[in-house]
Amino acid sequence: MKVKLFDFEHEKDLEDAINQFFLDNPKIEIKNILYQTSHFAWNSEQIYSFSCLLLYK
User: Are 41 and 22 in contact (CB under 8 A)?
Assistant: First the structure.
């Protein structure tokens, strides 16, 4: 089993990276996908994090 981590500030970037990973690795067997969002303030600015943990063979 292998793990691939993705983390981006924009959800579209996360989506694009995951889709590209699937295109680049068409023979992988996906076991589980875990998705998480979080945010925090930094100097009065909202910072978002969209992340995904992909477990595959």
Answer: no
Look at residues 23, 54, 49 and name the one whose alpha carbon lies nearest to residue 36.
49
Give the β-pairing of 45-56 and 2-8: antiparallel
**What's the whole-model pTM score?**
0.84
9 φ, ψ to 5°?
-85, -15
Q: What one-character DSSP code corresponds to residue 43?
A: T
The pLDDT tens digits of the residues spanning 5-35 come to: 999 999 999 999 999 999 999 999 999 999 9
Q: Which pair of tokens denotes residue 14?
A: 């996360």
Largest CA distance in the chain: 45
Residue 52: count other Cβ atoms within 10 Å of its Cβ: 18
